[in-house]
Amino acid sequence: MADSGVIDGPGRKDEIERAKSEGKDLTKEEKQRLRKEKKQQKKIKEKKDDKASQENEKEKKPVTSAAPASQPPTQPTVQKAPSAVPATAPVSVPASEASVPADKPTKTKAELKAERRARQEAERASKQTKKGETGQQAATSKPKAPPSDLQPVVKRLPEHIQVDNPDVLKKLAKKLERQQIPLRSDYGYKVSLFSHLHQYSRKAPLTQQLSIPSTVIHPAIVRLGLQYSHGIVAGSNARSVALLHAFKQVIRDYTTPQNEELSRDLVNKLKPYISFLNQCRPLSASMGNAIKYIKKEISNIPSNCKEDEAKNKLLNCIESYINEKIILAGVAIAKCAIEKQKISDGDVILVYGCSSLVNHILCKAFEKNRKFRVIVVDSRPRLEGKEALRRLVQKGISCTYVLISAVSYILPEVSKVFLGAHALLANGYVMSRVGTSQIALVAKAFNVPVLVCCETYKFCDRVQTDSFVSNELDDPDDLIVTRKGTTPLEGWENESSLGLLNLVYDVTPPDFVDLVITELGMIPCTSVPVVLRVKNVDQ
Amino acid sequence: MDYGTIKYLVEYFRDQMKKDPDMASAVAAIRTLLEFLKRDKGETILGLRESLTSATDCLTGVDSSVAVSSGGELFLRFISLTSLEHQDLSRCKKVMEERGELFLEKISMSRTKVAKLCHTFIKDGAKILTHSYSRVVLRVLEKAAAEKKRFSVYVTESQPDAAGQHMAEALRKLNVPVTVVLDAAVGYVLEKVDLVIVGAEGVVESGGIINKIGTYQMALCSKAHNKPFYVVAESFKFVRLYPLNQQDVPDKFKYKADTLKTAKNLSEEHPIIDYTPPSLITLLFTDLGVLTPSAVSDELIKLYL
């Protein structure tokens, strides 16, 4: 009786799940079946070891909370649960097997039963979380809803960070433990609106917890991670290029182990490196696209290819990616801006912060003998404008330097605003250094055209309408030191009601941007999804 | 290009314009280019393209409107899409000529398509405001009148050439009640009006339009009054320009061709066109369909890439 119930249990469970989610009432039959299964599971639970059962519960929770319970189709839930379950199954199966050998006649049948049981428990727990989800959980854990559920092609988009959700954190900790990468802990009090983001301190680098020499992480990657976390390598293009160079070194030093294929093993080797870099400093959109490209290239290597040949091919691919998408794209953008008269004689151009692309365009225009002058706007605590100022003045361009608080004062003099971008989102929003949207807003109020310069490899599929959902928090201790060297905020951690917020990015709506210059030409901000579509078709 | 060919081209162009005053200047230009293609004795494809480009340039010298240059560029692009398939130059040219004829046929139907799309937006009893003389707008209003809709029209005088009077006469022939207003009276008359329809000389990449001077003012006033501002334009008027403001429009489009040649100081001359940014335009009616200004870039990418 119990056996037959268990065998067709999962099938009925799916139905019941579906029925529940569709809002239909469970029939009496289904309710009886549920009760029976609950009794069975209770029996099994009592026989299991306490610790093992606790572990099971904890592991089930992150699995199920990861599933978007608010979506009507539960197929993804059911699919995700079994896919995550094999990961937890190795833990649960030995426990159940060890404690319940007497119940099952043969070992193989026991394994099957354990698997089915695990699946049922997952579904039961998911039902419970669904009941609880409508209650209190909605406040703290935003359901990570991939829009892919409603499309025929399941396209996984990067999920938003949720640091204040302990289940997600545990899942992340488990993943890092598996990859043998130390987990970086958050530092200091976080402003409540941004409590879902990481906030690290520069005084506690990730590498303090690493052994030397680290066997898991390649030294080039360790170096890169440190350079990121200390801000030595900063700026979207610089970070992507450094990443690609480090990966080239990794590929050069890589040897395929026995009985493994390069195309699969190398991708698996890269995963812990990417987690490590993510821990040092969250990945940018451009880095994400570069990594996607590399992974695609690696997995496209045919299996009959010799190792040296394959490595050479990959190195060439990376070289050509850097060359085409970053260097040549910059040259094309500069050419487009200059030839189409976007920089004309007598122009007063306002730039913000230090964008390598914008500096390149201005230098090229100056070489072509355009007469213009530049106003560099800067902001604390990074003061990146000083670097831009240095580069432009070296070329001989006449510059003015102001802080962002003076923007509305000098804007009547300005004829155009040139901004760089960190990423361009699929709904046309521009993600850039914090302060950019403020400048775009003031420029719009003064009717000054705003031009954004961005290569197409920075276009990303994400959609965001505000700067809160996904951002980066920098070290709050950066805000303590003022220009004169005084530190009035030194003891900020001791003040319970004081929080320091050092945001890195913000998001500018497309209404404030008049023109985006890419290597494909000049497009309005709303045409970014068209470019993405054309690019996807090409690939 | 030798002087004889230039003269021939210019004469042919002028002839075409005289023969059919209803034809758009771009269509006449394309006809001229097609004729030029038939008579061209070039030996290479590259040489052919170059001579076609220089022919377009010299036509722009006669009529400096945006539409002529955009029409020429589109013609070139349309015919050269298949130019590399055949080995034999004469066969290539034949294919090009066929495609040219096809292109010409397509665009001569475009005004009818636009009229079909737009006339449904004119409701019975509507009061329409329009600017200067536009043959596309005339065609739309003709179609609406043919559908037995009752509407009245306000036309601006549109100095310095008083083209608005021309439009008013044409409308009177259709038995449409029409009033000619001063250019300065646009703000005054807008409260009585239900919708504004204008034509365009060129549609730019941002989704904005280039049209007779006074259009920008009209668009600003209709935005302030919350009246819909519709633009009717054929697809061959889409041009690869991206002006950021009025100053950014190249001088060669701003002034008439004769003025460009004879004037000593351009800053003393009055521009005859202005640029209307996409934020002021509600909808664009083209033979590719009814588009919002942000969709224009999408269509341009499809046309040109």
Quick recap of the structure?
The complex is a heterodimer of chains A (539) and B (305). Chain A is of the alpha/beta class.
Describe this structure in words.
Chain B: It is found in: Cytoplasm, Cytosol. The complex is a heterodimer of chains A (539) and B (305). Chain A has 539 residues and is α/β, with parallel strands linked by helices. Chain A has helices at residues 2-7, 9-21, 28-47, 50-66, 75-99, 107-140, 166-178, 219-229, 236-252, 262-280, 285-299, 307-339, 356-367, 385-395, 407-410, 436-445, 528-538; strands at residues 347-352, 372-378, 399-403, 416-420, 423-424, 430-433, 450-453, 505-508, 515-518, 521-523. Chain A has a 7-stranded mixed sheet, with helices on both faces. Chain A has a 3-stranded antiparallel sheet with strand order 5-6-8, covered by helices on one side. In chain A, strand 9 and strand 10 (521-523) form a beta hairpin. In chain A, helix 8 packs antiparallel against helix 9 (236-252), helix 11 packs antiparallel against helix 12 (307-339) and helix 12 (307-339) crosses helix 13 (356-367). Chain A starts with a helix and ends with a helix. Chain B has 305 residues and is of the alpha/beta class. Chain B has helices at residues 3-19, 25-39, 45-62, 66-79, 89-108, 110-118, 135-146, 163-173, 186-189, 215-224, 251-254, 257-262, 293-304, and strands spanning 126-131, 151-156, 178-181, 195-199, 202-203, 209-212, 229-232, 273-276, 283-286, 289-291. In chain B, helix 1 crosses helix 2 and helix 2 (25-39) crosses helix 4. Chains A and B meet through loops of A and helix 13 of B.
List keywords for this structure.
heterodimer; A: 539 residues; alpha/beta; 3-stranded antiparallel beta sheet; 17 helices; B: 305 residues; guanyl-nucleotide exchange factor activity (chain B)
